[in-house]
Amino acid sequence: MTRSAAIDRAVAQYDTGVFHEVLARRIAIPSESQNPERSAALMGYLAEEMRPALERIGFTCRLLPNPDGKHGPFLIGERMEGAGLPTVFTYGHGDVIRGQDEQWAQGLSPWRLQKDGRRLYGRGTADNKGQHTINLTALESVLATRGKLGFNLKILIETGEETGSPGLRELCAAERERLRADVLIASDGPRLTPERATLYLGTRGAFNFDLNLTLREGGHHSGNWGGLLANPGIVLAHAIASITTVAGQILIPEWLPPPMPASVKRALADCVVDGGPDGPTIDTNWGEPGFSPAERVFGWNSFEVLAYRTGNPDRPVNAIPHRASAHCQIRFVAGSDHTQFLPALRRHLDRRGYGKIELSAARDSVSAATRLDPDHPWVRWAVDSVIRTTGKKPAVLPNLGGTLPNDIFADLLGLPTVWVPHSYASCSQHAPNEHMLEPIVREGLAVMAGLFWDLGEGGVPARTAT
């Protein structure tokens, strides 16, 4: 049997409806990790859906409780075919965000897979049930075609990614030896553009923090006190405005990464950011000057104000508010020292007379930034495989613009990380009407079948010590 036969078999799973049947069953499980009432659904997704599916194709599976004793469980599966074979680690998450049932378009439900034109609707289609279902369907097709994989595979499925992956780091630390592998090949997040297969090699980190300014107790009538009392909303707005230029360029030197490596610049020169017809129009003059859009979102740091509050926005009254607050975020690339973000901001604000503004990190833990060099042998190998399947060079992103727990795999487990996303930027993954695109699903099945076939053919990069 041949590589092309395995690819054809994988794509046929979509065309004959087999893929739809499997994904529909998974979408129907309301595994909302943000909803404390869905703990049974989280366990059910692993124990009743994923474990039998993996065991049927020769995996040995273990269900493991969360080390923190509070959040969703984990599944680890292994199919070991030989000690001298390459070992691949893959990952997926079975949890989804809240369904937001009442906000979906008429006739759609988050818990029912429904096709409409090129779109497959349902909560988890893009993030992440649809993506790991593509990968496992392709894997089964290779196994059925060749009779074996020709490599070892370890899979970890968690049920808490949408709540920050609690317990994942502790689990991987405890299971480090059993999870040892040569490379991570997995899928999550969006393609660069809907039409172009994409590889990304890491993720930007995310550092969330709060600014709070309280000037007095309670509000005071604006007619009696206007012009006499400092308005915390105005003061905080000016403080925030001092962080960037009017075009969003960061002005705090400690918030910036080292110069962009040449290999990163070369990779991004081949990348055009496009969210598709439903995506927003890029503001070309926003952010770091002199950079392309791809360099700004994938190769540099950005600062965002995610929420701002002063007074009562829902029911404004004629009173000078007593406090103002903002929830902010820095997305940062590898090489940035996130431990210096708040100290640098403190110095910046104090120098400008904003010493009364209080700063605090919004989360106990920070997802660190990761980036595999685009010239790494595993990247070149994966690019060659995708070209062989599609006839086109994929986009290679040194890192995703968003954040995943990739630092656990790259830093803790010491793995080269190659991600092959099967979604696109306008998929509504955290909103009503989440969906996948049919052309991406079909091409994703082909790409993954090609990758899995090639992994068993030999000629993969040499194993390196970790």
Overview of this structure, please?
It is a single chain. 46% of the residues are buried. With 466 residues, the chain is an alpha/beta fold. It is globular. A hairpin with a 2-residue loop joins strand 4 and strand 5. A six-stranded mixed beta sheet has the order 1-2-6-3-7-16, sandwiched between helices. It has 13 helices and 17 strands. The protein has two domains: 287 residues, 3-Layer(aba) Sandwich (Aminopeptidase); 114 residues, Alpha-Beta Plaits (2-Layer Sandwich).
Summarize the helices and strands and which ones pair or pack.
Elements lengths: L2 H13 L2 H10 L11 H17 L4 E5 L9 E6 L7 E7 L20 E3 L2 E3 L7 H18 L5 E7 L9 H7 L8 E4 L11 E3 L4 E10 L5 E2 H4 L6 H10 L20 H8 L23 H6 L3 E9 L8 E2 L2 E10 L8 H11 L6 E4 L15 H14 L4 E3 L8 H7 L4 E3 L15 E3 H18 L11
Parallel strand pairs: 3-6, 3-7, 7-16, 8-15
Antiparallel strand pairs: 1-2, 2-6, 4-5, 5-17, 9-13, 9-14, 10-12, 11-13
Helix pairs in contact: 1-4, 1-13, 2-4, 4-13, 11-13
